[in-house]
Amino acid sequence: MIKRIQTYILLHYPTLWNLRLVPMLLILSAIHLIVFSISYIITDTEFNKTYYSHSSSSMELLYTASILICILLLVAWLIYYNRNNAFKSLYPKRIKQLYLEWIMIFLITSGITLIPLTLTGGYISKWKSVTTLAEAQKALKILEDAKVLIPNSEDNYTYKGYDKPIPIPENMLLDVDKLDLSLYDTEYDYQSGLIIKGYTGPSLLFYNYYYAYYYKDKPEYSDNESAQKIKRHKQIKQWLTEGNKDSIYSIMKDFTGLQKRHNLTINLTTEEWYKRIYNPPFFPVKESTIIMNCSPYEYEYSYDNYTSNIAVEQVETDATLGNDYMQTLSKTPPYLQYLELEAGYNEIVAHYDHTDIKWIFLICICFSLSISIIVFSHRVTSGKSWLIALVSTGIIIFISCLTAIVVSEAIDWENRKYVVIFTLVLWNIFFIVLLSKIIIKIVSRKKKGLSMIYMNILLWLIPCQLLFAFFSFMIYQEILGNYDYNKDDFILNIFFINIPIVILMMLPACALIRNWKSLAEE
Question: What is the pLDDT of residue 337?
């Protein structure tokens, strides 16, 4: 079947046959499907970690394998593609044919370089299949509320408020001899003796979100996400103070529901959790109320000055060590898998923001664009001139960078940005000079000479012209102080705009190549 298709293409569309377009598209489709499936299958979405990353051992191995596949595919395709090239001797091709040939080269190289993107796509798709964005955001709100009610350490600064003692209820009798006075605000009076003014020890009522200090008394941040969290935390502490048990219990029940949804171990039921921390009027955070915020069997933890990072495998293989470990676990407080749930839902929400995938796509396409132009330049010139141009370009880049560094070190720090602008503008001028030389050659009908080298460098510089101009403009705006834009978004947009512009620029470049090719050789 494939042989018949190839024979038909050879007779009617020799350029497509020489490009091996049909076999390459079939091979690339199969590879992309396989890579996506493998990535999707091995992605762990069990909510059993406190941190997720693409750099896990399995994903690192897959990314390495995908890059090796890209290299092998590119090399194999180039071997077949470079076997025949009538353009080097006969130039029977029209401008349109040349341009379409480059477009197809770009299509094939894109299919090759986008394999890592497909790998990432499988990973992201698996996470997005767990739940919708709205449900994930709702779950994170539940977790944020429950965070106040999971006192994981009595030494945690977030549960302390020395300057805000909790008043002692009038009907509450305290036995001074049995109290730890370091947890209370006291005052001594000669007539009344020791007076306890209020409780200042660790308490749920002192829960203080990290950013509360920064957003305190700042109405301009009233709509900020952190400010909204602070407002919500105050509401929960008010429920504790006012004895709104139903609302508190509802938060706990919703949290337990999330654990059940992801088949996590229920080490502490809703009722047990409620009885453990609901201790009015002070709601103290102490040894009897502490709740670990992750599973001790999977993660490093610290409790009573004991830190354990013993792997489960070691426990299973060493009986003595296993007994000691289990005895230690029996002394630890109960746990709720808060960190596991938070990490999982944050991972889901993060993948609905397409910034990362945009960057990966952009990097792959930029590589594809560069490779396609490099291959095309070799196609329309010669191997010798291509190699000389490559060495020459490397030398020019080295000299320009070295000169820029030396000049930057010799001038004031404030003026170093001008050196960068000047260097980028010089590359734009260099492009114009090369273009002028080739046009003069074509108009004067002189022999090619060194223009074969010029043509290679000219083609390689096409993708850089708009980027150099934009970056020069961006740096100049920074010098003037007009820096009211997001730099990452600005750079991302520049590169995306550059891709269609380069594709359009290659059409007149092909016209230039076609006319230049008609010049006599040396």
Answer: 92
